[in-house]
Amino acid sequence: MIWVTWAQHRREALVSGIILSVAAALLVITGLIILADFKSSGAANCAPAAGPAVGVFASGTSCEQVLGAFFSRWLTLTGAAWLALMTLPVLLGVFIAAPLLSREFEQRTYLFAWSQSITSLRWAVVKLGLFVAVVLVSAAALTVLVMWWHSPLDLAGHDGPWAAFDIQGLAPIGYAVFALSLGTLAGLVIRRTIPAMALTLFVFVAVRILIGALVRPHFMTAVTGSAPDLKQGSWVLSASYYADAQGHHVSLEQVNQMVSVYASTAPTTFNGSAVMDYLHRQGISLLTDYQPLDRFWPFQLIEAALFFGLAVSLFAASLWWLQRRA
Amino acid sequence: MIEFHLDRMSGITTYWQLVQQVQHAIRVGRLKAGDQLPTAREVVARLAINPNTVLKAYRELERAGLVVSRPGQGTFVTDAAHAMPVTTHAALRRSLERWIRSAREAGLDNESIRAIVSTTLQESEDKVGIA
Amino acid sequence: MSAALEAIALTKRYGTTPALTKCDLRIPAGHVVALVGPNGAGKTTLLHLAMGFLNPTAGDIKVFGWSPQAQPTIVLPRVGFLAQDRPLYRRFKVRDLLEFGRRLNPRWDGELARLRLERLAIPLHRPVGKLSGGQEAQVALALTLAKKPDMLLLDEPLSNLDPLARREFMQVLMDAVAEEGLTVVLSSHIIADLERTCDYLVILAQGQVQLAGEIEGLLDSHRTLVGGPSDRALLEHDTSVIHSSHTPRQTTMLVKLNGRPAAGQWEEHHVGLEELVLAYLSRPSGDSSTKPEPVEPAKLQ
After folding, report:
1. Strand, helix or coil at A18?
2. Does B1 map to a domain?
3. Among B9, B17, B39, B50, which would you mutate to test the C interface (most chain C Cβ atoms within 10 Å of its Cβ)?
4. What ipTM was estimated for this complex?
5. Which of A158, A266, C164, C280 is 20–30 Å from C99 (CA)?
């Protein structure tokens, strides 16, 4: 059955292999270019020493400028790459997973396969098992490459690795397996290729957006801390806001009033840090809610676990559906 | 070796056509004592008919004493089967000629004569309980 | 000895649509069975249930005494199946399909299959999609026979084949039956194709078995009676009338003789297979009072 699955899907394997190879090649080439620029522009020297992130009151050290310039230099390229890598699981789900079983039913070749002394269950388990194995390995390999590729940007960007949460770490492997399970279930239940592809696309995108935008920020309770003291590599969840010593929000009007009061006392120095010191003395601080850098990997684990869990349930549902039918 | 053919339109069942063809071949001397009949597989491969039909025809011929089946060897025409002596033929033909003359005198044409012969034959078969 | 195929109160519904309703059937082994009926009668459903592709809604189906749902690993190697319109993997070459079969079937005689195909001059390296209809049918048949089954279930195998291709298909099939003593169930709605190859008949209509039995016995026990209109009354309430038609001058009826000759003055004619099937198919639905038990003449074993 393993040979049979391979023989049946040779073409898809070839096309996917080519796409992944091209992607890998592009990552390697661009990665080397970015790395070279990282070193030659002096950003590499700045990166480990990067202190507080740029807050509301930019302190404009030369390192900040170098890192900022480096980051924005590669913004378009990394943005495009991010987009392309985000679509890979979608392509997998829609063009490979959805037709996987639906085509067998649409063309009725399942009748031929199932009359070859193989139970429908074993047929599905081997087919899916093989695909899962190949997807896991390819996704893992590609993700490792992406992590290498993105590492200078992890160090240079304000958000650090969080900016590329969806394309590095463990999450992309989870997305790939989820797309596979979603597509095969859709194809199995709907038995028509085009509707199965459409459903897979719609549900996959919906789930990703839902989890990414609504659930992920709350995997762990956000940390509240001083905005100016925010470290590089934190994932900022909200705009900065003023709060008093008890943590109650203070409106911008009130703060402006206080600043005017301070200004009317005609202090000797009237700059950003002096204003901040004054506000501190009044018990007011600028806060923000964020997830710190050291939570990146725990969050990756949670996200991956979530999507793997979904994938496992969908695969189980597929096998149950198959047994019920047959 | 005899080669069978089938007439779909004749209304006669397949196995009976095979029996008739063997009987006819023996009668006119095309099959002689000791000749082998085609195996069931050979007949089936050519005519695409049910093997049981061939076996049934051969059993019928064996029952009538015209052939004998030797396990492992095949089915062969027996010594007992022989072409009908010309004399018996001649006697039958003379009485038939007389009958035909009477039928023509009664005003029957060839087709009516053939119809009478077939229905009478069929009825006599029914009475004996063949097929 | 177990029947080759047995259905006991077999019922199958697709949602609310009934396909088979309380079917009872007992096909003995060693026959070539014609499964006839109009489209939508449930022939394909019956064959799919026998292969375990579907689960019955109610009742049982058994193949050589085994349940295809509960014991697929025992049933599947013993039964060869050819689905309607021969769905093969058309991108595969013929020899790929042979490899396919070799890897998935415990019993496999690839050499014999290759020989058969070579004798028919079918190129093994050509994709199946590029073969003619007749060649495709031969490939499908060769694949089915190569797994050395005890029974073949063929769903309208002769559809879309020209007369020569049909003949060649039946030649190969009958040859295999002669050699290996296979039981074969052929479904079709073209009765002429089946007449000289089948010795057992099952008529399926409206999801029910209308008639089942050895063809010889069935033809023996039915007659077409032709008589005048005055004779009609004699048989009017006789439940053995399968089909009747009337003109002002003549009444024609197809009847099943219940062991005694028909009362009245009738012209008796023998019934052909096609006539018999058509008569049973044109009976009004629900009239299963004349459903006979399988008729078997004394067999010379």
Report:
1. helix
2. no
3. B50
4. 0.85
5. C164
